[in-house]
Amino acid sequence: MPEYFVVRGTVEPGDKRGRELGFPTANIALSDQSGSLGDGVWAGWIGRPDGTRLPAAISVGRRPTYYGADGYRLLEAHVLDFSGDLYGETLVVWLGSHLREQEKYDSAEDLITALKKDIAAAAQWTADHPAASLPEAGESALGEVRRVAG
């Protein structure tokens, strides 16, 4: 059975850099700032309070292109084919497939190229792993990253 990392958290305003790059994100603060579990770029799903589940490309980490190793550790979910406002919503995020490690890029253009590849890979993975197959998330503290067996 597949294993997932699951995070529950409230979407907070960020620095709007994702939107500036053309990839808006839902930002969730992580309680574990040591980065011991789950850093990287992931394909996965978000669950909204109304039960809707949407595919996403998800970054977990310190955003090294802009903040180096000293950045605040954050989950940023780019919800595929979605436009709208998620601020203030408490989401459940399932991290299903680790696509790559966090990387520092030399330019915004290089980062955008990588993000386009990540989004394509996330779209393929979520198409092959439908939301109906996700394990129950259970309860957890906001911002806590946990492993859940599928």
Overall mean pLDDT stands at: 88
Work out the helix count.
3
Order of helices and strands: EHEEEHEEHE
What structural class results from the helix and strand content?
A: alpha+beta
Order of adjacent strands in the largest pleated sheet: 2-5-4-3-6-1-7
- Helical amount among residues, as a percent range? 10-25%
- Termini separation (Å)? 5 Å
Proportion of residues in β-strands:
25-35%
The rough form would be described as globular
Q: How many runs of DSSP E, i.e. beta strands?
A: 7
| Biggest sheet record | 7 strands, antiparallel
- Rg from alpha-carbon coordinates: 14 Å
Enumerate the spans where pLDDT stays under 50 for 5 or more consecutive residues.
none
Characterization of the model:
- With 150 residues, this protein is of the alpha+beta class.
- The protein has 3 helices and 7 strands; from the N terminus they run E-H-E-E-E-H-E-E-H-E.
- The protein has a 7-stranded antiparallel beta sheet.
- The mean pLDDT is 88.
